[in-house]
Amino acid sequence: MNFITKKRNISNSINVFRFITQDFAKDTINPNEVEHHSNLKDIWWKSNGPLNALHSFNPLRISFIINGLLNMKKIETKNIGTRQSLKNIKILDVGCGGGVLTEALSRLDSNVTGIDPSKELISIAIDHSVILRNKNIKYLNESIEEHMKLNVEAYDAIVTSEVLEHISNKYSFLTSCVECLKPGGSLFITTPNRTFCSWLSVVKIGEQLNFIPKGTHQWEKFICPHELQSILEMNCQCDTIAINGLTYNPFTNRWCWTDSTDISYALHAVKGK
C-alpha cells in the first residue's frame, strides 16, 4: 500500500519537533540506549524470544527495499525472487544491532556493511555471520558519523530500520547517512510515528505486556512522517518517494502494510544527483 506524499506547509510542525528535541544531546549516540540494547545480546538471535518481532519484520523490510530499488532501476527484474535479487548492490545497514536484517540482505547477493555503536552486538553479529560463510558481509563497531569520514558517497542504498526512534539528534544522524549515499542512492527507514496510537500500542501495550523488552522506547523521540520528510528534503536534498503504513500483531507475530501511518511506517527517499 504505497502512497506518495504531497508537498505541504509543515513549518509549524517542524518547529514543534525542534522544541521537543532541543534539549537532547548533540551527539547522535545515547549511552543509555546503547547499554539497553547491548543487554539484549543473549536473546538477539532467538527468533521465538522477546525480539521475535524484529525477526518476523524481515520479509516486509526486504520487499520494501527490493521494490524501491527496482522502481529506481537499480536492480534487474529478472533477478527478483532469486538469491541474486540485490546483486552488486552496496548497502549500509546503520544501527544493525546483532545483524538480523544485515544477514538477510547479504543472502540476496548484495555487499552489506553493518555498523553499530554497541561492541557487544557487533560481536554477536560477527559470531553469527560465521555460520553463513558469506564474504559479502562486514561488521564495524562505529557510529554513522565515524563511518562517514571514509565513506562519502560509497553506497547504493542505506537502511536504518527501527533505529531513528533511539536517536537524539536526528538532523545530524540523517545528514551523515545521506553523505554516505551515492547521488541517486536510496535511503530506507522504518520507525514508529509520534501519535497517541503509537504511544498506546508500542510503549504502553507493547512494553507492559512484554511483547517488547521494557525500556526500549521513549515516545518523545518518535518522529512523524512529515517531519522526517521535511528534514530529508530541506537538510539532505533527498526526495521522498513513498511512505508505507505498518502495523504489527503481537499475538500472531505478523507485520502487515496498511493505509494508516498512525503507529509505524516505512519511508523511501532518494538522494539528488
From TrEMBL:
Its cofactor is Mg(2+). One of its GO terms (biological process) is methylation. It catalyses: a 3,4-dihydroxy-5-(all-trans-polyprenyl)benzoate + S-adenosyl-L-methionine = a 4-hydroxy-3-methoxy-5-(all-trans-polyprenyl)benzoate + S-adenosyl-L-homocysteine + H(+); a 3-demethylubiquinone + S-adenosyl-L-methionine = a ubiquinone + S-adenosyl-L-homocysteine; a 3-demethylubiquinol + S-adenosyl-L-methionine = a ubiquinol + S-adenosyl-L-homocysteine + H(+). It is an enzyme of class 2 (transferase). Mg(2+) binds at E162, E165, H166. Keywords: Magnesium, Membrane, Metal-binding, Methyltransferase, Mitochondrion, Mitochondrion inner membrane, S-adenosyl-L-methionine, Transferase, Ubiquinone, Ubiquinone biosynthesis. Its main location: mitochondrion. One of its GO terms (cellular component) is extrinsic component of mitochondrial inner membrane. InterPro entries: Methyltransf_11, SAM-dependent_MTases_sf, UbiG_MeTrfase. It is a peripheral membrane protein. Residues 92-189 form the Methyltransferase type domain. One of its GO terms (molecular function) is 3-demethylubiquinol 3-O-methyltransferase activity. Pathway: Cofactor biosynthesis; ubiquinone biosynthesis. It holds the Pfam family Methyltransf_11. HAMAP family: UbiG (MF_00472). Belongs to the class I-like SAM-binding methyltransferase superfamily. UbiG/COQ3 family. Component of a multi-subunit COQ enzyme complex. O-methyltransferase required for two non-consecutive steps during ubiquinone biosynthesis. Catalyzes the 2 O-methylation of 3,4-dihydroxy-5-(all-trans-polyprenyl)benzoic acid into 4-hydroxy-3-methoxy-5-(all-trans-polyprenyl)benzoic acid. Also catalyzes the last step of ubiquinone biosynthesis by mediating methylation of 3-demethylubiquinone into ubiquinone. Also able to mediate the methylation of 3-demethylubiquinol into ubiquinol. PANTHER family: METHYLTRANSFERASE, UBIQUINONE BIOSYNTHESIS O-METHYLTRANSFERASE, MITOCHONDRIAL. This is Ubiquinone biosynthesis O-methyltransferase, mitochondrial. It comes from Sipha flava. The lineage of its organism: Eukaryota, Metazoa, Ecdysozoa, Arthropoda, Hexapoda.
